[in-house]
Write a structure and sequence with these properties.
This protein is mainly α and about 160 residues long. The chain contains 3 helices and no strands. The longest helix is centred in the middle third of the chain and has 133 residues. The protein starts with a helix and ends with a helix.
Length: about 160
């Protein structure tokens, strides 16, 4: 102990300082160190939870992106199919319209030919009637008498023959 006195250290003060240090260490450990460790553990757990959530969110985002791409691809295929169907239906409709137009044109041509045929027959009958009248008048002048209808018809037949 003499060494301690030579250095100016009082054993009672040293012991008091050691006790004070132990008490201070206990107080710091109990009221400061444990709450700080608790806060750090809670923070560590929150960070781990956040990292897990972040990973899950990233996975969900990738799944959603993949599903979105699949939906877009499906929509493109569907739109292509619809366009092709519409084109085919348009071609079929165009062919039907063309066929109907051709049929109507043929019907119009037939009606026009029939109309022309009727008009031609009408003109021929009018020409015959006119010819009959001309022949009858010429014959009347030549014969100088009136002819009956039967005489006119007989003369027309001879003239036509």
């Amino acid at each position: 102990m003499e060494i301690l006195k030579d250095f100016g250290v009082e054993p009672i003060l040293l012991l008091a300082q050691i006790v004070n240090f132990v008490i201070l260490l206990y107080i710091l450990k109990r009221f400061l160190y444990k709450p700080i460790l608790k806060v750090l553990d809670e923070r560590k757990k929150r960070i781990e939870t956040s990292m897990k959530q972040s990973t899950e969110i990233q996975k969900k985002f990738e799944e959603v992106s993949q599903k979105q791409q699949e939906i877009l691809d499906e929509a493109k295929k569907e739109s292509t199919r619809i366009i092709e169907t519409a084109k085919n239906e348009a071609k079929i409709l165009a062919n039907q319209i063309q066929t109907e137009a051709n049929t109507q044109a043929e019907e119009i041509m037939k009606r026009n030919q029939q109309s022309l045929q009727l008009e031609r027959q009408k003109m021929i009958s009018e020409a015959k009637q006119e010819l009959i009248d001309v022949v009858a008048s010429a014959t009347e002048r030549v014969v100088e008498r009136s002819l009956t209808k039967a005489d006119k018809d007989r003369l027309v037949k001879k003239s036509v023959a």
